[in-house]
Amino acid sequence: MSRSTPAASGADRTDALAGAVRKINWHVLPLFVAMFIVNYIDRVNIGFVRQNLSADLGIGAAAYGLGAGLFFISYAVFEVPSNMLLQRFGAKAWLTRIMLTWGLAAVGMAFVRGEMSFYAMRLLLGAAEAGFFPGVIFYFTQWLPRDERGKAMAIFLSGSALASILSGPISGALMLISGWGLHGWQWMFVIEGMASVVLAGFIWFWLDSKPRDARWLSRAEQDAIVASIEEEQRQRDAVHAIKPSIWTLLRDPQILIFCVIYFSVSLTIYGATFWLPSIIRKMGHFNDFQVGLFNSIPWLISIVAMYCFAMLAARFRFQQAWVACVLLIAALGMYAAGKGSPMFSFVAICFAAIGFKAASALFWPIPQGYLDARISAAVLALINSIGNLGGFVAPAAFGLLEQKTGSIEGGLTGLALMSVVAAGVVFFSRMKPREGRSALAL
After folding, report:
1. Which stretch of 1-5, 105-109, 195-199, 325-329 has the lowest confidence by average pLDDT?
2. Predicted TM-score (pTM) of this structure
3. Of 199, 167, 157, which Cα lies nearest the Cα of 45?
4. pLDDT (tens digit per residue) in 43-85
5. Alpha carbon distance 375, 200 (integer Å)
6. How many CA atoms lie within 13 A of 142 on its CB side?
7. Which of 359, 262, 265, 268 has its CA nearest to residue 306?
8. Which range scores top for mean pLDDT: 271-275, 281-285, 349-353?
9. pLDDT at 7 over 60
10. Is the C-alpha dihedral spanning 424, 427, 429, 431 positive or negative?
């Protein structure tokens, strides 16, 4: 009988870990998906008010593109410090702070009065939001075992696709509101921003920073989760005795490659996001709500594509090849979008969305597996912040091109070229750490 006790104990620990993972997924993931949806809508909703900003405030194409992109400058500057503060103050307090301040900044967008205040509010919104995405990724590393993090990440990333679908109809419907001296576009900013403020209060009461703080987990489940995370770290320590250094990683060319790849993906995503409503308006005489409905179509298609490519990548394992494949799909779609009528351009962007949204989902497991958990939060924040500078370059360049030439064809061709380059980089790069390097561990 004495020999069966360890097996029973091991089975109990396995059951406790499985139960803990199940509870964490149900307790945390729906909240993070809701946060991502609200986050994404507040970030990109200016794409629906470009004509309103021009008519009411005199903000032209170049100024609009610059303002849309300035968000990503302050976002990049404050991303890494924000994630370091998250580790210091805890996820509960810091994610609540992020959500509250970005909601207030989003409301403030309703009261811009010209180009300078538009620029200032976009910079403020980027600074307020910095740290959210990599903060959630870091949260997963503290709460879920390695084998479960990829599934959680896929569900979390679905929030951006859902937000892309919902943002059009919701923003379009809100823009039909008028009254109290505010235009429809101002009501859109106020209501969508206040949704973030309300959600911030819910986060404070619902979220826990560490598994030991979670009263909704039993003690056995807490022990199982903590033991699993600690065991992963002991395995890293056994392979790499020297504690990894973020400064060593900054000298690692592989990190630069990660940044270049994600920059290319973001460039295409935000180039399409901020200019797609304008392309739709050229297709016919649509009101704001109808534009929003059309805007949802590419993102709806992309959700199906993300799921299908994730299944293919799980079955036929070569993550880099799948990322390269979907980047080539994005390149073909963006190139075609500049070569025809507005309707043809819309269909081409629907095709491109299959590629660039799937690329975003398939990319993140690669750096996650490459980095040691002890410095992963800061480095993932670095990759995300530098990569997201594509969100500055794309709209700013598109705005200048349209103002100078009256067309964005050159911009679409440039996006296609960048996707081809990124596909080559990701396919031919060696993205596993070499043995003996103290800075990295799987």
Report:
1. 1-5
2. 0.73
3. 167
4. 878 878 888 888 888 888 788 888 888 888 888 888 778 878 8
5. 27
6. 22
7. 359
8. 349-353
9. no
10. positive
Ramachandran region of residue 8, left (φ > 0), alpha (ψ -120 to 50) or beta? alpha
C-alpha–C-alpha distance, residues 120 and 127, integer Å: 11
Neighbour tally for 241: CB within 10 Å: 7
Tell me the one-letter amino acid at 421. V
Domains of the chain from N-terminus onward: 14-428 (1.20.1250.20)
| pLDDT of the residue at 95 | 92
Measured over the CA atoms of residue 28, residue 139, residue 87 and residue 146, the dihedral's sign is positive
Kindly list the distances between the CA atom of residue 383 and the CA atoms of 73, 83, 296, in Å, as whole numbers in the listed order.
Answer: 14, 12, 28
Read off the pLDDT of residues 366-409 as tens digits, 9 standing for 90 and up.
786 676 655 666 677 778 777 878 878 877 777 777 777 777 77
CA-closest candidate to residue 140, choices 48, 62, 29, 236: 29
The two structure tokens encoding residue 433: 């750490």
